C-alpha cells in the first residue's frame, strides 16, 4: 500500500540522516556532498546511500566475496560472510547486499564495454545462480541495476510448490524499455524527457539523450539478455557453468575493446592500404562522434567485410542474437581482416628494406611471352611499369625498352614488363591501351594491379623522368601508408586504451580468469590476433625501417603486447580446458 511504502521510505531517510549527522559531527559540523541533510531529504538514491543502507557500516577493506561456508545456523545466510546487525533496516526489509540483493552497478552499455570487467559481480552472480538457485538452496534474489543515470530493479522468484520461475521488473519512472529497439527508445521514451534538473546544472540536452540511451541499452542487456538467458541456461540440456562470465567477457572484450579497435583502427587501416574509392561507406552517428578524425578514409578493399553501420532498428534484436550465435564465423572474419593488414604492411616493409639494402638478386625486367604467366606474376605486383610496343614502332620501341631495362637495375623493387601489342592483344583492352594510325610505344603505370597513369611515348627522356617520379612517389607512399596506419593505432590507444589500461582491464583480467577458472577460447583467439597485428607496428626493427619515431609509447606498448601474446596462447588453453 501507499502508506506502507511511505513508512518504509521514512525509515530509510531516517537511517541516512542519522549517518549524515554522525559524519557532520566528525567534520566539525561541515556537511560533505552527498552527506548533507538537503540532499538526503531530496530522495535521490546515491550509490553511497545504497551501500550504507545495505551494509549499515563501511569496512576498511572491501569484501572480496570468498563464498566460504560460515558456522551460521541460519541456512539463509549459509555461504555468505555474516556481517550485519540483527536490527539493521537492511535485514528487516530484506535488501541486504548478497543475502537478498545483488547490485549490478556500472551496467550502462558503454560501461559494460569499456570499463574493467566486473569480476566481483561476476562471482556473485555465478555463486547465486549456479550454487544456490540451481541447487534449490535459495529461491529468490533482487537485482538493483545502476545504469548510467538510472536505477531499476529486477527480481527472480521460484515457486517452491510447482517450480515455476517468475521475473519481475520495476522501473521507478515506468519507462517501457525492455525488448524495444533504438528507434522506439529514442522517439517514444527519450525524446519527451525534459531533464530539467540536469540542464539547470549545465548539462546539454543532447548529452542527456545519449546518456539515457546508454542507460536503457544497459538495462535491456542486464534484464532481457544476461539474467533471462542465465535462467534458461540453468535448465538447458547443455548447461554451461561459466555462462555468465562468457556473456560478460564477450560484451566487454569482443563488443567493447576489440569492436572499438575494428571501427577506429582496423577499418581505417584497410581503407588506407586498399586505396580504393568507395561511395557507399557508412558510419554510425554515435561512433562517428567518437572516431579519431582523419582524411585517410578513402575506401574499402574487396577482401574486407564492412558491417552496415545504419542498422535497421526493427531487426536489431535479431541481429544481436545472430551475432552471439555466430562467434566462430566472426573469429574467422576477424582473423582474415587482421591478416590482410599484416600482410600488406609486411610487404611494404619488405619493399622499403629492399630499396635501402638493394638485396634483390636480379632486376625485374620481364619480356612478356605468355599472357597466362604474366597474369599470374602481375597479380602479386605492388607497383609496376608496363611498356606496350611493336616491331613496327621502329627504334622508338627498342629505345624505350632499353631505358626501362636500365631503370629496372636501379629500382629492383619495381617490376617492368615489356609487352608486344601484336602478340598480346588481350592485354590492350585490360589496360585500356588505344592504338593509333601512327603507333607509338605506350607506357602504363600501375599500383595494386590497377592503372594509375597512361601515355604514349613521344619523348624518351620525358618518359624516363615520369617513370622516375612514379618510382619516387611509390617509395614515399609505402612509408607514408605505414606511418598513417601506425598513427591510427597510436591515436586510438592513447585516447581510449593506454597501455596501462590494457594491462589492467584486459591482460590482468584475462590472466586472472584463465589461471583460476575459465576464459572463452573465442576471446583468447581474438586477442591473440589483435596483439599479433599490433606487434607489426610495435616491433623496433619495423619502426626503424619505416622511420617511425621510436618514442616511449611504442616501447611501452610492445611490452604489453608480448604479455598479451603469452596470456592468449590458445593451444595451451585448449589443452587445459
List keywords for this structure.
five-stranded mixed sheet; four-stranded mixed sheet; 22 helices
Written description of the protein model:
With 577 residues, this protein is of the alpha/beta class. The relative contact order is 0.06. The strands form 2 sheets. It has a 5-stranded mixed sheet with strand order 5-7-6-8-9, with helices on both faces. Strands 1-2-3-4 form a 4-stranded mixed sheet. Helix 7 crosses helix 9 (205-234), helix 10 (243-274) packs parallel to helix 19 (521-538) and helix 13 (327-357) packs across helix 17. Helices cover 55% and strands 10% of the residues. The chain has 22 helices and 9 strands. It is elongated, with a radius of gyration of 32 Å. Helix 15 links the parallel strand 6 and strand 7 (415-420).
Brief rundown of the structure:
By secondary structure, the chain is of the alpha/beta class.
Detail the topology: elements first, then pairings.
Elements: H1 2-26, H2 37-41, H3 47-55, H4 89-92, E1 101-104, H5 109-114, H6 119-133, E2 140-147, E3 150-158, E4 165-170, H7 182-190, H8 196-200, H9 205-234, H10 243-274, H11 285-290, H12 316-324, H13 327-357, E5 365-368, H14 371-378, E6 383-389, H15 395-410, E7 415-420, H16 426-430, E8 442-447, E9 450-456, H17 460-495, H18 499-516, H19 521-538, H20 540-546, H21 552-567, H22 570-576
Parallel strand pairs: 1-2, 5-7, 6-7
Antiparallel strand pairs: 2-3, 3-4, 6-8, 8-9
Amino acid at each position: 500500500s501507499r502508506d506502507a511504502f511511505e513508512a518504509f521510505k521514512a525509515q530509510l531517510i531516517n537511517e541516512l540522516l542519522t549517518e549524515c549527522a554522525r559524519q557532520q559531527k566528525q567534520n566539525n559540523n561541515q556537511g560533505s556532498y552527498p552527506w548533507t541533510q538537503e540532499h538526503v531529504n531530496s530522495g535521490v538514491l546515491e550509490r553511497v546511500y545504497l551501500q550504507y543502507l545495505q551494509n549499515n557500516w563501511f569496512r576498511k577493506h572491501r569484501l572480496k566475496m570468498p563464498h566460504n561456508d560460515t558456522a551460521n545456523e541460519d541456512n539463509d545466510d549459509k555461504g555468505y560472510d555474516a556481517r550485519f546487525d540483527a536490527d539493521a533496516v537492511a535485514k528487516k526489509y530484506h535488501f541486504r547486499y548478497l543475502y537478498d540483493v545483488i547490485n549490478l552497478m556500472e551496467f550502462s552499455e558503454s560501461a559494460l564495454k569499456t570499463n574493467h570487467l566486473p569480476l566481483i559481480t561476476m562471482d556473485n552472480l555465478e555463486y547465486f545462480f549456479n550454487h544456490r538457485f540451481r541447487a534449490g538452496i535459495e529461491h529468490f534474489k533482487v537485482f538493483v541495476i545502476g545504469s548510467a543515470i538510472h536505477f531499476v530493479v529486477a527480481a527472480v522468484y521460484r515457486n517452491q510448490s510447482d517450480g515455476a520461475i517468475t521475473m519481475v521488473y520495476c522501473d521507478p519512472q515506468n519507462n517501457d524499455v525492455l525488448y524495444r529497439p533504438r528507434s522506439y527508445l529514442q522517439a517514444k521514451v527519450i525524446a519527451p524527457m525534459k531533464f530539467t534538473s540536469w540542464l539547470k546544472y549545465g548539462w546539454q540536452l543532447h548529452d542527456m539523450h545519449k546518456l539515457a540511451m546508454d542507460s536503457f541499452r544497459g538495462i535491456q542487456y542486464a534484464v532481457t539478455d544476461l539474467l533471462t538467458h542465465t535462467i534458461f541456461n540453468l535448465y538447458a540440456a547443455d548447461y554451461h557453468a561459466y555462462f555468465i562470465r562468457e556473456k560478460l567477457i564477450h560484451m566487454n572484450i569482443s563488443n567493447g575493446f576489440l569492436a572499438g579497435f575494428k571501427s577506429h583502427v582496423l577499418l581505417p587501416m584497410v581503407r588506407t592500404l586498399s586505396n580504393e574509392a568507395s561511395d557507399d561507406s557508412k558510419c554510425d552517428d554515435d561512433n562517428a562522434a567518437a572516431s579519431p578524425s582523419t582524411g585517410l578514409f578513402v575506401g574499402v578493399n574487396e577482401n574486407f567485410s564492412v558491417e552496415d553501420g545504419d542498422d535497421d532498428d526493427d531487426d536489431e534484436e535479431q541481429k544481436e542474437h545472430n551475432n552471439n550465435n555466430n562467434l566462430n564465423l566472426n573469429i574467422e572474419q576477424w582473423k582474415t581482416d587482421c591478416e590482410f593488414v599484416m600482410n600488406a604492411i609486411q610487404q611494404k616493409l619488405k619493399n622499403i628494406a629492399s630499396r635501402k639494402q638493394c638485396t634483390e638478386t636480379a632486376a625485374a625486367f620481364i619480356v612478356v611471352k605468355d599472357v597466362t604467366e604474366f597474369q599470374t606474376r602481375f597479380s602479386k605486383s605492388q607497383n609496376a611499369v608496363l611498356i606496350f610496343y611493336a616491331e613496327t614502332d621502329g627504334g622508338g620501341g627498342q629505345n624505350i625498352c632499353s631505358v626501362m631495362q636500365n631503370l629496372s637495375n636501379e629500382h629492383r623493387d619495381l617490376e617492368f614488363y615489356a609487352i608486344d601489342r601484336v602478340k598480346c592483344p588481350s592485354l590492350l583492352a585490360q589496360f585500356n591501351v588505344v592504338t593509333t594510325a601512327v603507333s607509338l610505344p605506350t607506357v602504363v603505370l600501375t599500383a595494386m594491379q590497377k592503372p594509375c597513369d597512361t601515355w604514349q611515348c613521344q619523348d624518351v627522356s620525358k618518359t624516363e623522368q615520369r617513370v622516375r617520379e612514379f618510382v619516387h612517389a611509390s617509395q614515399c607512399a609505402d612509408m607514408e601508408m605505414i606511418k598513417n596506419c601506425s598513427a591510427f593505432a597510436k591515436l586510438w590507444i592513447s585516447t581510449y586504451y593506454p597501455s596501462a589500461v590494457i594491462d589492467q582491464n584486459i591482460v590482468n583480467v584475462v590472466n586472472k580468469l584463465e589461471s583460476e577458472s575459465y576464459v572463452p577460447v573465442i576471446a583468447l583467439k581474438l586477442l591473440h590476433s589483435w596483439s599479433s597485428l599490433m606487434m607489426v607496428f610495435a616491433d623496433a626493427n619495423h619502426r626503424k625501417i619505416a622511420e617511425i619515431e621510436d618514442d616511449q609509447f611504442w616501447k611501452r606498448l610492445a611490452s604489453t603486447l608480448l604479455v598479451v601474446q603469452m596470456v592468449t596462447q590458445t593451444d595451451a588453453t585448449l589443452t587445459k580446458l
